[in-house]
């Protein structure tokens, strides 16, 4: 986006000047503006040129249909979004209404506009609220998933999805869009596809989608691999290990590796000579996975065990990630750790991350209340500028400085005391826990003190809207994980404003961005409110990134406390500076981790785009005869290059392996490679000629070709995806040995992709020639793959 703040103000002024003109129009005249704008775009006018009139028209429509006239700050937010940037708008400033104007403008081209939310509740709510005004202005609007009252067991047809995605405006979730993209590219016929090229998207809570979830790929699994019995063996082994003696663990960098002693213990335990030899690679991989499960994956933080199953948690907001597994076998390692039934390890058929998904759009924009702290990363990684939108009313919320405690127990008791005090004053309190586990502990403490409250965490997310709706009532106490930082606004009940508004109390040290999100739940639209965070030196955020000096300081105070000194709350400028530097260090580590993930994903993205483009050509082609001929030539050439000299026995074996099982003898006296190649191609043509006789017409022949080609492509692509998933795990450890992991990953990924192309070609030839075909009782083609 190239707009300056001055240009935004000028556009706002133009839009405001058009208010009397739009207000004077009849309903029919205002509706007719949509046709006028569309005609202008067809005649070559730019979106920027018609923006003032289109925004003014939609603004007036919002007023007539919804009874809400967007404020100037909302119009400014809409301008920023329409130009492909991020609008930072505080909680309660009306992002839902703001989006109507840029969505309307960008949908006028006929190429579609989307608004993507973190969950289906918000998408469904916004679509239901705004559908009347869009339809009043002559646009179609849909959600990208079945409505809440629809039977979820009913499979949505491609035709239905095509209707949704062909709507002028679509409200959907980021995860739905990701899976739909993957399934669309796995379709076996044009009739099964439903997507059109991506045009314009507004990402609600853009930081959650493009930062917090940037490293979590969305995966479609294929057939299961053979299950290994090493998961339980490796888990039992790592339980015998001791830190420093058998492995080194750098908590601040989330790194670990076996010591010489640990390597020898592994070789003794598994009765092998060399842990790092090729034949023992899988043993080493399972040991590393087991260590990762024990050291990095914490129950109640990264995952929960629900009804005997390991379910991942979204650390950013505490929500369950149902149906999602950690890749490369880590999920099974966690299951072994928790002694629950191991799920099948499945090959990856397709995967994509949010950065790659939204990179497919012509224009991307986003909204959030807290993004400025990450403006450098957004600009560098996504080329997205951030523009703060002023609040309509001044923010009068008081953000008190954090209270620092030595231990977790001291911190929680002080926070509970403050909750009781505020509750007795009649103020509503939002008490935020750092994890699901901690939210349950806090809930028990409150019950012990007789404080009635609601708990909002991954276990009762279905009640989220109801709990949030009541969280602003007089005397209400709500215990929640970080999920309370986003979503439905907390509106104050009668009399609460006079008592001081909502009080947000945090009980964990968090990143600056998440801290601002949670604090922003109070003081919406000029309401009063307060926020304060209670942290301790035992918080996970602190302990995982502490310097040695900070650790010594903690141990010193802890020893004094154990000796009887009364040390509860601690403070001091050096301590606060150290904690601020720690917060910055963790933020940098997070950005670096996302950058590394994006490097791996960039390699996969290039391969995925190339593969899907070629696959789409096969899908769309009306005649595949010429392409099949090229496959035959390349396949025969590849087979003949396997050896320099071919006698009759070798040639017969090649024919029986790749062309026909029925040939009992081959032509003799073929002297040159060209003669052999021509002879084999003649055999191929004869086999295909016989297969064509089984079919009714050329259309079925093309269907046969398409089915065989896609089967080969998809099978090889699954193997390639599986290889790349494993490759990431291996190369992550190579920098410790001084290797350039990025270079090695790119080199091996490129080499494997070239080999995949060769395998696809050969598999197509084999499937074309060796797979039996017949027509069923309905004269439908059936291909029997070997």
From TrEMBL:
Membrane topology: Peripheral membrane protein
Ranges where the Helicase ATP-binding domain occurs: 76-244
Listed PROSITE patterns: HELICASE_ATP_BIND_1 (PS51192), HELICASE_CTER (PS51194), SECA (PS01312), SECA_MOTOR_DEAD (PS51196)
A GO biological process held by the record: protein import
Molecular function in Gene Ontology: ATP binding; protein-exporting ATPase activity
Complexes and interactors: Monomer and homodimer. Part of the essential Sec protein translocation apparatus which comprises SecA, SecYEG and auxiliary proteins SecDF. Other proteins may also be involved.
Protein name: Protein translocase subunit SecA
Species of the source: Lactobacillus kalixensis DSM 16043
């Amino acid at each position: 986006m190239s707009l300056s703040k001055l240009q935004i103000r000028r556009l706002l002024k133009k839009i405001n000047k058009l208010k009397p003109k739009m207000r004077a129009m009849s309903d029919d005249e205002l509706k007719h503006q949509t046709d006028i704008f569309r005609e202008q775009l067809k005649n070559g006018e730019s979106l920027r040129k018609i923006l003032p009139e289109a925004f003014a028209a939609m603004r007036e429509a919002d007023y007539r249909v919804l009874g809400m006239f967007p404020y100037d700050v909302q119009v400014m937010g809409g301008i920023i979004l329409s130009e492909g940037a991020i609008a930072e708008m505080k909680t309660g400033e009306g992002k839902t209404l703001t989006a109507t104007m840029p969505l309307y403008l960008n949908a006028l081209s006929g190429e579609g506009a989307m608004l993507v939310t973190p969950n289906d509740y918000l998408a469904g709510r916004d679509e239901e609220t705004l559908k009347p005004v869009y339809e009043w202005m002559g646009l179609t609007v849909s959600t990208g998933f079945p409505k809440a009252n629809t039977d979820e067991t009913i499979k949505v047809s491609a035709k239905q999805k095509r209707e949704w995605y062909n709507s002028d405006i679509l409200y959907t979730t980021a995860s739905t869009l990701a899976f739909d993209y993957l399934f669309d590219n796995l379709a076996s016929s044009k009739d099964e596809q439903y997507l059109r090229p991506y045009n314009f998207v507004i990402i609600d809570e853009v930081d959650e989608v493009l930062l917090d979830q940037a490293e979590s790929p969305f995966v479609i699994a294929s057939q299961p691999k053979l299950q290994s019995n090493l998961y339980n063996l490796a888990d039992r082994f790592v339980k015998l290990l001791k830190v420093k003696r058998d492995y080194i663990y750098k908590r601040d960098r989330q790194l670990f590796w076996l010591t010489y002693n640990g390597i020898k213990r592994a070789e003794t335990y598994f009765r092998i000579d060399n842990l790092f030899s090729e034949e023992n690679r899988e043993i080493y991989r399972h040991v590393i996975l087991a260590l990762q499960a024990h050291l990095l994956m914490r129950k109640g933080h990264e995952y929960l065990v629900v009804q005997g199953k390991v379910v991942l948690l979204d650390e950013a907001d505490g929500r369950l990630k149902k149906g999602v597994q950690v890749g490369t076998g880590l999920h099974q390692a966690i299951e072994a750790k928790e002694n629950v039934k191991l799920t099948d390890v499945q090959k990856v058929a397709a995967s994509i991350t949010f950065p790659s998904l939204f990179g497919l759009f012509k224009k991307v924009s986003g909204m959030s209340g807290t993004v400025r702290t990450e403006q450098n990363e957004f600009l560098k990684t996504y080329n997205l500028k951030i523009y703060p939108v002023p609040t309509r009313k001044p923010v009068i919320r008081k953000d008190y400085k954090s209270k620092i405690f030595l231990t977790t127990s001291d911190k929680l008791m002080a926070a509970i005391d403050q909750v009781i005090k505020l509750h007795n004053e009649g103020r509503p309190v939002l008490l935020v826990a750092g994890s699901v586990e901690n939210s349950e502990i806090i809930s028990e403490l409150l019950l012990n003190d007789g404080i009635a409250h609601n708990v909002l965490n991954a276990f009762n997310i279905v009640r989220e809207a109801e709990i949030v709706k009541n969280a602003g009532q007089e005397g209400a106490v709500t215990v929640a994980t970080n999920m309370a930082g986003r979503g439905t606004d907390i509106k104050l009940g009668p009399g609460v404003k006079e008592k001081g508004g909502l009080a947000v109390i945090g009980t964990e040290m968090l990143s600056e961005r998440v801290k601002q999100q949670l604090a922003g739940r109070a003081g919406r639209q000029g309401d009063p409110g307060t926020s304060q965070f209670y942290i301790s030196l035992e918080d996970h955020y602190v302990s995982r990134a502490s310097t040695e000096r900070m650790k010594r300081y903690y141990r010193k105070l802890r020893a004094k406390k154990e000796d009887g000194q009364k040390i509860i709350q601690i403070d001091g400028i050096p301590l606060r500076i150290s904690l601020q530097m720690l917060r910055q260090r963790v933020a940098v580590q997070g950005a670096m981790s996302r950058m590394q993930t994006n490097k791996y994903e960039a390699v996969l993205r290039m391969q995925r785009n190339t593969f899907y483009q070629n696959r789409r050509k096969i899908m769309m082609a009306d005649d595949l005869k010429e392409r099949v001929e090229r496959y035959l030539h390349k396949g025969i050439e590849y087979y003949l290059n396997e050896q320099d000299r071919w006698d009759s026995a070798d040639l017969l074996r090649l024919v029986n392996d790749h062309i026909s099982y029925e040939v009992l003898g081959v032509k003799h006296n073929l002297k040159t490679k060209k003669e052999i190649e021509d002879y084999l191609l003649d055999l191929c043509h004869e086999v295909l000629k016989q297969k064509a006789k089984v079919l009714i017409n050329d259309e079925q022949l093309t269907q046969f070709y398409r089915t065989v080609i896609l089967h080969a492509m998809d099978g090889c692509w699954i193997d390639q995806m599986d290889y790349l998933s494993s490759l990431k795990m291996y190369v992550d450890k190579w920098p410790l040995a001084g290797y350039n992991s990025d270079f090695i990953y790119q080199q091996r990924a490129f080499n494997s992709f070239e080999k995949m192309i060769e395998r696809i070609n050969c598999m197509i030839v084999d499937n074309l020639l060796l797979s039996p075909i017949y027509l069923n009782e309905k004269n439908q083609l059936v291909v029997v793959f070997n």
